Amino acid sequence: MGTTTISLKDEAYDRLREAKREGESFSDVVLRLTESPTTEEAVEDLAGGLGTEFAQEVAESSGELTSSPP
């Protein structure tokens, strides 16, 4: 795995640094922020961490709605 040097505006660097969690590299932050979350992860984030079970129920309900004929 190689590396690439990039230039960032100060504001972009500050935001990236603020998003960085303990033990994460900047590469880890970029990968985390650019991956597509699963429906369950997105719902859990939006719901303030109400729990995986709730997120799974919402995802299942969402799937039922999108797969039902009109």
Count of alpha/pi helices: 4
**Proportion of beta-strand residues:** under 5%
Main beta sheet: none
Kindly report how far apart the N and C termini lie. 48 Å
Report the order of strands and helices: HHHH
Structure description:
The model has no long low-confidence stretch (mean pLDDT 82). The protein is an all-alpha fold and 70 residues long. The chain is 61% helix and 0% strand. The chain is elongated. It starts with 9 loop residues before the first helix and ends with a helix. It has 2 domains: 1-35; 37-70, no CATH class. Helix 3 (39-46) crosses helix 4 (52-67). The protein contains 4 helices and no strands. It has helices at 10-19, 26-34, 39-46, 52-67. The longest helix is centred in the C-terminal third of the chain and has 16 residues, at 52-67.
Write out key terms for the chains shown.
70 residues; mainly alpha; 2 domains; 61% helix
How would you concisely characterize the structure shown here?
Helix 3 crosses helix 4. Helices cover 61% and strands 0% of the residues. The protein has 2 domains: 35 residues; 34 residues, no CATH class.
Tell me the layout of helices and strands:
Elements lengths: L9 H10 L6 H9 L4 H8 L5 H16 L3
Helix pairs in contact: 3-4
